[in-house]
Amino acid sequence: MRIACAQLPATYGALQPNLDAALRTLTKAQQLRIDLVVFPECFLTGYCVPDREEAERIAVPLAALEPLEERAKETNVGCVVGFAESDGTELFNAAALIEPGERPWVYRKTHLPELGLDKHVKAGDMLEVCETRWGRIGVLICFDLRHPEPSRCLAVQGADLIVLPTNWPEGAYASPQFIAPARAAENKVFVATCNRPDEENGYRFIGKSGIYDVGGNPVAIAGQEETLLVADIDLPLTREKRTVVRTGEYEIVVLDSRRPELYGPLTSQEISSRV
């Protein structure tokens, strides 16, 4: 498949300009024969809110994404786009996977840092893989990547590709440099991360979106400028989890070598009190 990360600036609290930018990008992607475009975290709404009241003001319902559904169907280009979501009762930091001709599949951020929108939303409770025309895709959002468990959960469910809409600010250089390629390598999956290149309410984002192969090697890496980062990736490669250096002598399996019976402390509710 051909995937693109749309490292674009967003207008804070203004759905229509951001939606228009996303629609233009899908049209451009059609010309470039791109299958799937990934946009940054909270691209449609903005992220850096000062309080709950402002979070409620900028949040939008899933129905606001209908123009993207229509454009995806017209162009035959899918997308993953982040937004502050309101379901009428709760707020979420969400990302919708829109496959042409299908209803959006929505992921809600499960691991929340104590900043911006995430201080005022409810954590999601789902780590699942979406079956698509291109392959099995898992979605995470920004801080989710800092924890190894979410990526591994998606990998053991058969994810071929993990996409990460993100808002990496200044100081988060370890995420594109080390953590994203590590998640790809340790699970033998493709990983595509999409960040912003702009500033919002006093916070500067660092760009550096990236697409990584099953060995954690960069297929395409962006700088700090606005760009549409494009790469061709072969998703079936993820389904061979055995690395063979010398047949019968030097072989490594990623998932089959796990020892789940030893991992109980990872799910202990007491862990936070011991750290």
Largest sheet: number of strands, sense, barrel closure = 6 strands, mixed
Reading the helices and strands in chain order gives EHEHHEEEEEHEHEEEEEEEEH
Helix content: 10-25%
Low-confidence stretches: none
Please give the order of strands in the largest beta sheet. 5-4-3-2-1-14
Give the N-to-C terminal Cα separation.
43 Å
For the record, the CATH architecture stands as: 4-Layer Sandwich
Determine the strand fraction and express it as a percent band: 25-35%
Q: How many beta-strand runs?
A: 16
Oligomeric state of the chains in view: single chain
- Kindly report the CATH topology: Nitrilase/N-carbamoyl-D-aminoacid amidohydrolase
Shape: globular
CATH homologous superfamily assignment: Carbon-nitrogen hydrolase
Q: Give me the Rg, rounded.
A: 18 Å
Total count of helical runs of at least 4 residues: 6
Q: What would CATH call the class?
A: Alpha Beta
Label the structural class. Answer: alpha/beta
Provide the domain count. Answer: 1
> What number is the mean pLDDT?
95
Characterise this structure:
It is a single chain. By secondary structure, this protein is α/β, with parallel strands linked by helices. It has a single domain, classed as 4-Layer Sandwich (Nitrilase/N-carbamoyl-D-aminoacid amidohydrolase). 22% of the residues lie in helices and 27% in strands. It has 6 helices and 16 strands. A hairpin with a 3-residue loop joins strand 15 and strand 16. Helix 1 packs parallel to helix 3. The longest helix is centred in the N-terminal third of the chain and has 17 residues. The chain is globular, with a radius of gyration of 18 Å.
